[in-house]
């Protein structure tokens, strides 16, 4: 009988390729597509979507976002409002909403970069331990 090879990391690689979470642009794309990714997680086996959304929410918690930054993201990406409408609801200008989102995505990307650095260090330590054996 033949072998069946299942690529368990395919979904994660696809999300990583599409959403470069180490920069603000990738975070903005991920936030923009959050509803679509969330809807795909209902399909059996799309655990990568669940993982990336969980990581995003955790990174947002760790990123020390200001209340204005969190609210801007919630209105624009969570409720799909325009920058203008979000600004009116928040009592600030469209440009202020855009700036709050820009700063927030930079902070979130910094968290992902930090996590990546920690992961790389852990891999280096593991590799060093193997060489000592």
From TrEMBL:
GO terms for molecular function: DNA-binding transcription factor activity. It holds the Pfam family Sigma70_r4. One of its GO terms (biological process) is DNA-templated transcription initiation. InterPro entries: RNA_pol_sigma70_r4, RNA_pol_sigma_r3/r4-like, WH-like_DNA-bd_sf. Residues 63-101 form the RNA polymerase sigma-70 region domain. This is RNA polymerase subunit sigma.
